[in-house]
């Protein structure tokens, strides 16, 4: 019973906070770039408005196009339910890092299907790029997660991210943590891999796949990507200073929720700072990014054994 | 009932023969149907026989001639039964598929000979598995190889003949190597059965074992498509009719794995660290090259063939790791990874056969094997495309489908055995882990490319608007559906399957897989994923109006968009081609011919890209040129002068006497 209550609490909290993350990133970015910026909570109204709007469905699409938003948002919900975000043993106890990597890939795969189904060149371009990124990020994610698993002594996600293991308590993880940051940037289509604020064909990856979607489906897909960003920020935060609550007591939950909120604020500020200070990479230079990430994760793994 | 069990195996083999004979009755469709019915019956009996062995593995099954002095020639133990079950299952479903499928190709193929050859092919594979000595083993092997050679040429095109000849050469080099290895081990007694051979191998001279291991690795490796002996595979598998491709890729490769495991597990004494590292190295190389070409290729069936090479590479990687573990005394790692390899072999047989059956329907709809001409089939065949989607995701080893759990066990056991004591073991495991992870990522790319470019968007060939495409008949849909269902169910039932193949080390209970400290309930994972998607579906119904939608043309920047503007397979895989150009060395050229001398911008341009195979270009072709050059040199002694020939005969005689005496 307590598990179910914990799961619902975690689900509600993350689902409520995730649009705020996107809003905060945009607001910080605007401030850092000398603009006034829209208030962070405008994302909520934007999502609700999109949800109420009429669908425009292309005449050229098949069932796959309609199935994609459900699959992508479903995978995002799976992440929220199975990871230790608010509670240290939140979610299914048996979810391990391989399933996490697999579910992340599954989400990308469906997004790619959606991008290709309408048959426009934009969607195809985004799909091809996204698939390349997803295919090359998956090994990096696996190796990085494994390094954490070796240190934690268990491959269970709860033991890796939920038990208060941090970069400070295990300095050997510093390279793996850096690799995980690169994975998070690539998975969430942020700088320097993708520019989330653009609709220019040369630069966009994630947005190009959403181009055909409108109304509730668009809202679902955007919501899914905000959930994914939130989850990644919280996971990274767990590795630095935040501890998920171990029990279902009000003070502990309050502390953990405050931890999540502070992670999101600091994380979105860091992300905005990064996106304001570097340029997006040309897509064909991502080879270097991916190689750096791959060898960083590999050296992180080796470092775990050396130290 | 128990009275019949010993005869199941015999009946299964006989029905395969009868199926071949029935096919030769004539060109009438009734003989075609009869042949498939007998083949399906043979498969069903074969499945029953395998199940009987699963239930009582200690006894096994023997086909013997009563009161004869000969030891039984045919028998089935638990290890063979796993593979016999696969052969039987796939041949049943291929037979059901072939009834309508071959009807649409009755002018292309000569049906009586095709069906007879398929029966011979299946018979060959059955004999290989049930034989208990090298002699019947080699006979079965040859029947299988020759039948499949003729099946590859069955459409009689020049391209197929080229592919088949390459296949014939490679497969016979392999067969010769296997035969030589058996002869070396037997030390003169060729009619020895495997158990005697095991004893002989124990007393063999020191040099025999490594040599015969190398010969076995080459022989079985060339049959199963191990890089660099794989060059025939992407040519031969696609050239055959699709249900034969399914048999070749889904089962024949497994027969090679069966043979390799049979000799390394049961015949040779435990192989050492070096030999296991050789297997591992070949496995990793194969997986990496297979998956890269699978991601790049623009031909539907060739992509599947390359993906088979990749999967075989992974299986050999797992085998290599498990032997490595055995040689290092890591007993648990050996057991779990070995049963994971067998599990992945089963999974591969299911999804790859299903995908090749799908390729038959797809190729028939587009009248082409090129992905550049495909697209848009999911609008016309939604159920079919849903089956394809599940099989493709399963082939990409994504959760929650069966193959994922094979890889899961493999990765988990690698992860659980990183020890702090032995840097050598750590290095090997880490290298394997990293390359396998990279291969896993690229495999997703290859499968997504295959599904998305053939099923989604619109047809890329303007002359073929899919208006009149032939719909899959019920028999085809049935077989594809059964394969789809089986990869779906292989997930939740993975622990049960593992228990069946005696991988108890990883199965604490019937619904739980466990490796080291990690445990997983595949059925819960499947339900959980479905529940998440279902919850989203319900919430969307509650939160927004469903009917509130409008059909309109797609986003087109104000100018009409047509199918020629779609992303093609070449474009889709361009990033991978670019990122891995150092390994792949693909050749791309754009030829610009000016039309007007005055204006260089008005020019006709032609684009040319060659996805060549570096093994062909830098390995086989130079080798071929060397041999042709050598034989041209040798030809010089053919002067036409009879006295010179007499001298040669005399010299040969002297030389023979010199050696003999």
TrEMBL record, chain A:
Transmembrane segments: 63-85, 97-119, 131-155, 167-186, 217-241, 253-274, 286-306
A Pfam family annotated for this UniProt entry: NADHdh
InterPro entries xref list: ComplexI_Subunit1 (IPR052561), NADH_UbQ_OxRdtase_su1/FPO (IPR001694)
Keywords for this protein: Membrane, Transmembrane, Transmembrane helix
Predominant localisation class: membrane
Localization, UniProt: Membrane
Membrane topology of this protein: Multi-pass membrane protein
GO cellular component terms listed in the entry, alphabetical order: plasma membrane
Name of the protein: Formate hydrogenlyase
Annotated organism of origin: Candidatus Uhrbacteria bacterium GW2011_GWC2_53_7
